[in-house]
Design brief:
Layout lengths: L2 H13 L2 H8 L3 H15 L4 E3 L4 E3 L1 H28 L4 E7 L7 H12 L3 E7 L2 H9 L5 E4 L8 E9 L1 E6 L19 E5 L5 H13 L5 E6 L2 H9 L4 E5 L10 E5 L7 E8 L5 H10 L2
Parallel strand pairs: 3-4, 3-5, 8-9, 8-10
Antiparallel strand pairs: 1-2, 5-12, 6-12, 7-10, 7-11
Helix pairs in contact: 1-2, 1-3, 1-4, 2-3
Protein name: LysR family transcriptional regulator
InterPro entries: LysR_HTH_N, LysR_subst-bd, WH-like_DNA-bd_sf, WH_DNA-bd_sf
Keywords: Coiled coil, DNA-binding, Transcription, Transcription regulation
């Protein structure tokens, strides 16, 4: 078995179409078929069910697809780390995050990292919670900053920040900080919320706020981007409820009304894989407790 066999298999496993996979790999379809056959002969298992109409992964193929993606991503990370070591650098930490983590947590951590370990580089990707967990499993990220309550058992977690919520309204809205008394004042309003694609647990937490106030909100828009929500609120297309930390640095015609008196809280967690052996990650994790 050679690395090209795994790369070809991974592409076909995702495309499930020989012609499309071959085109992506810049090889002919017969050549791809031959490579897959060689891999199946090597493993002594059938990886694909083939008919004239479709290509489908077998149970063994589904397992190998997950593992092959992890192995190839890990190999890429090892190669890059080796090159950085040769240049006298300490390595790289690949960081995923939800938008609110960029308000204070990540900038502060990066500042500490630069001061203590200037030879460690970082790469940043803003992703929703689900995509971050998937990237951790496939060794595309070293650490993720998510708003979740539970994560898969193979992952380690540490709460890095707990936040209350705030109501967001247009500055021209008749209800402001000065005359706000209860969320029930917004019973007939349209609400703009983070989509449950952002995090189902987070979405359920928000919905429990409305349950406590005895009404079900009219949700006019959903988004996974805070800035999109704020823009819609600014245009008076609805009001929103977001983590209070998101108000930092916002320069729009909107107002944040604290809901800190409510029982609901949201936690930002750092999450990483228990089996991650990246030395640079270990040094980064030390900063979480500083």
């Amino acid at each position: 078995m050679e690395l090209r066999h795994l790369r070809y298999f991974l592409t076909l496993g995702k495309e499930l179409h020989f012609a499309k996979a071959a085109e992506k790999l810049y090889i002919t379809q017969p050549a791809l078929t031959k490579q897959i056959q060689q891999l199946e002969e090597e493993l002594k298992v059938k990886l694909f069910e083939r008919t004239k109409r479709r290509v489908k992964l077998t149970v063994a193929g589904e397992y190998l697809l997950t593992e092959a993606e992890y192995m190839l991503n890990h190999l890429e990370q090892v190669v890059e780390a080796t090159q950085r070591k040769a240049e006298g650098e300490e390595g790289e930490v690949r960081i995923g995050f939800v938008g609110s983590a960029m308000q204070n947590i990540i900038p502060n951590l990066l500042e500490k990292l630069h001061q203590k370990h200037p030879g460690i580089h970082t790469s940043l990707q803003e992703l929703n919670n689900r995509d971050q967990l998937d990237a951790l499993r496939h060794d595309k990220l070293d650490i993720a900053f998510v708003r979740l309550v539970t994560v898969p058992k193979e992952l380690e977690t540490q709460v890095v920040f707990e936040d209350s919520f705030s109501l967001v309204v247009s500055k021209t809205h008749p209800v402001s900080r000065s005359n706000f008394s209860s969320l029930t004042q917004f019973r007939k309003e349209n609400f703009i919320l983070f989509s449950n694609d952002y995090s189902q647990e987070y979405y359920d937490n928000i919905m429990s706020i409305f349950t406590d106030h005895g009404f079900e909100p009219k949700v006019s828009h959903r988004s996974v981007q805070a800035n999109s929500i704020f823009r819609l609120v600014e245009k008076r297309l609805g009001v929103a409820i977001v983590p209070s930390a998101l108000q930092s640095g916002v320069n729009l015609d909107i107002e944040f009304i604290s809901l800190a008196h409510l029982r609901q809280r949201t936690q930002l967690m750092a999450v990483w894989h228990k089996q991650n052996r990246n030395e640079a990650l270990g040094k980064f994790l030390e900063l979480l407790s500083d």
